[in-house]
Amino acid sequence: MTIRWFLAAVLLMTGCATSDPYVYTKPGATTEQKERDKTDCLFDSKETTHGPGGPQITVNQDRYRRCMTDKGYTLERTAR
Q: 77 pairs with which residues across the strands?
């Protein structure tokens, strides 16, 4: 469960630090449901690789997109 909270914190920090022109939308989804689904997909798409600096956790973006799509979300461009 600790990894899920870590990934959620990374996602929140990344979301605050960048202005992503794309967002996942799902008609009728509450904010809580969307955050839970995003966290679940991040957890399911994480990959750990081992290197000289120790283990690194990365997110397989293809697997993340597929997970969100499978949950009924659509990636849409936001208005600027």
A: 22
Strand partners, 57: 48
12-41 pLDDT, tens digit per residue, is 555 544 566 889 999 999 999 999 999 999
Are the beta carbons of 73 and 23 closer than 8 angstroms?
no
Of 36, 13, 43, 29, nearest to 74 (Cα)? 29
Confidence band of 72 (pLDDT split at 50, 70, 90) = very high
Three-class SS string for 23-69? EEECCCCCHHHHHHHHHHHHHHHEEEEEECCEEEEEECHHHHHHHHH
Q: Which residues contact 25 (CB under 8 A, 6 or more apart)?
A: 73, 74, 76
* Residue 4 burial (CB count, 10 A): 14
The reported pTM is: 0.69
